[in-house]
Amino acid sequence: MNTIAERIRKQRTARGLSQRALAAKLGISRTTLISIERGDEAVTMGTLLKVMDFLDMTLETKKVVRLPADGVFTSRPTLMQIMAMRERGMFA
User: Which sequence spans correspond to the domains of the chain?
Assistant: First the structure.
């Protein structure tokens, strides 16, 4: 299963955009885009959604995130994992 970060990278490359080009189009830094494509937790929800909207990613795409099978995280969950848990009703 692909994570949101992996799907964003695939959508970007499928459109023939470099990280630098996409970041410039969105008015964000290349470093921020790199963080998004790595699934880093330091990315704001607004920035993540801005990238996803630009790449025409659907709500279904946003839901595809790897979660631990037992529901227990060994480290802090990423923003994308928190979004997926919220969408699945795992917490309010």
Answer: 4-87
The pLDDT tens digits of the residues spanning 25-73 come to: 999 999 999 999 988 877 887 888 889 889 988 655 444 466 677 777 7
* CATH number for domain 4-87, candidates 3.90.550.10, 1.10.260.40, 1.10.3720.10, 3.30.1360.40: 1.10.260.40
Question: Are 5 and 37 contacting, i.e. CB atoms less than 8 angstroms apart?
Answer: yes
- What's the pTM value of the predicted model, to 2 decimals? 0.62
User: How far apart, in whole angstroms, are the C-alpha atoms of residue 5 and residue 59?
Assistant: 14
b (16+ CB within 10 A) / e for 13-37: eeeebebeebbeebebeeebbebbb
